[in-house]
Design a protein that fits this description.
heterodimer; A: SH3 type barrels; 3 domains; 4-stranded antiparallel sheet; 8 helices; 65% helix; extended; B: alpha/beta; Rossmann fold; 2 domains; 6-stranded parallel sheet
Chain lengths: 295, 303
Amino acid sequence: MIFLKRTLPLIITFITGMIMIVAFFSGEGLPSIKSLESTLPKWIQIIMTFTMVLGAFSLLRINLQKISRKADGWGYSLVLIIGFLSMAFLGFITGSWPMFDKPLTNGEIYYVLCEDNVSARPIRVIDNLKDKEGKIKVEYVDDKGEKLADTESAMIPPDTARTRNMSYANSMQQILFVGVFKNAQSTMFSLLAFFVASASFRAFRIKSKEAGLLMGSAFIVMLGNVSIGSLVSQILAYIPVIGPYLNIADIKEWIMTYPSSAAQSAILIGAMLGYISASMKIIFGVERSHLGGEG
Amino acid sequence: MNIFIKLKNLDRRWVFLFVALSVIIPLLFPFALPVVPTKAVANLHKFIENAEALPEGTRCFLSFDFDPASEPELKPSAVAILVHMFRRNLKPICGANWPVGGEMAEVALVEAANAYMSTYEDMKAQGKLAPGCKPIIERGVDYVNLGYKTGAIIHVKALCNDFMYPYPQDRDGNSTAEMAIFRNPDGRRFAMSDVGLIISFTAGTGGIETFISMAGEHKRPMAAGCTSVNIPRFTTYLQSGQLIGMTGGLPGAAEYETLIERPGKGCAGMTPQSIAHLVIMLFIIFGNLAYIAEQRNEAKKKG
């Protein structure tokens, strides 16, 4: 078992890691190795897709355990499970509906999604034979199936036409996504503005020269980043001699391009060196925590 | 001085209220503030405008690497850039490294396509459209939304060799092999090297940095649209020349909208954001005045 759990993964990691390194530096000199460089990413994409499925099952298992044990905050887990299952169910149904649906029939009424991605409008199939572009001929009708007077027949891809039930499922999924998920995420992110304001009011103190420098730079960047900075610059321009040089946007650009960028470059270079070092440790089997936290 | 010391203990709900009002009031009673494009935004606009760098019909890859949390910051710049591309008769190919990026791309594409088609006649009369522009643009011919694929850097690496393998279908399930937008005159399979410009709208990891990491393979010019918090990080890539331009946060979007003369949500958001910045700055100043007053009081007591 120790061979399967530790030795084999270490061998696979070493071999694939070395192949990728050799392939990257070999150029066209080693065509067979170079070809692996384009093959391995396809394998990785397939494996990563499976890891998403694994992650979904893991998420379900952990939260179901929390609910069964009535652990603290189990109600949140319940909401998560309900949300997860309903979105997954509606997503699978709407995404794979052609597998379950019958072929489009001439004269039957179907529904196509409107541009708001939520509501659907009825259509009647006039000719279900595909043209050169793979489209079918339809006409727009009202809810009673009467042709709309001010519309002409249109050519649409057949997979955009859905039955009434599928159209409801699709609308429901979009309502949950646009109406709940999108808005909830935007709200959570927007709350940051309030906490940033409160935290900076309480904690941003000039206790040293460095803190003063930081605050000065922060003010210039905050002003230079928004339109009101231009107005402030216009006012500052009235100051004799130095006024014309006090352009907030220009000073902000200088701060961002030189001092800030220099610090960011140093951080990035340091992080990348650490990344290379960590990768080498994993390839050579020095770092083994990914095999189960045994170090 | 006492008033400042009292201010120090101000209930944080007052801070929340002032921040909320600083956003709500300018939204209810809008007024325009001047928007001056920065060099990074102007460079990106200039590159897309340049017919030598991007001749008509050039396909550009736009990666939507964000989720609804960053949509208010990134969507306006995505829409502005898409509208500009349609006016230049460039063909945007949209993809995503974030799971809901495909949805973000869809919303932006629909808005930009509608904006382009509804203003086609006016823009044509003003001579602001490329000669080959059509009044109606079609999915699969003039633009496409490929949606999300797993892998991030590995996905980008796969795209460098062949678009059709990771994306056999677009987001709506249409076969990409049959789409006119992916057809090469010499019959080669479409790859990243056929793209004129790569733009990633990045909210965090897995965005433009994945394309920069693969620059040695695709060798295509790159630009970014990023959230304000990422501007310092990505300015480094501008300085090193790895990015030709960048739209940073909502101000970047407003600047791009100004350059293409189509004010949108970016310009509309500038006034509330300006006032909110001022309010936060005022709170920091008051907080520090309170701190100084407290220090003086303590010094007096000791003295």
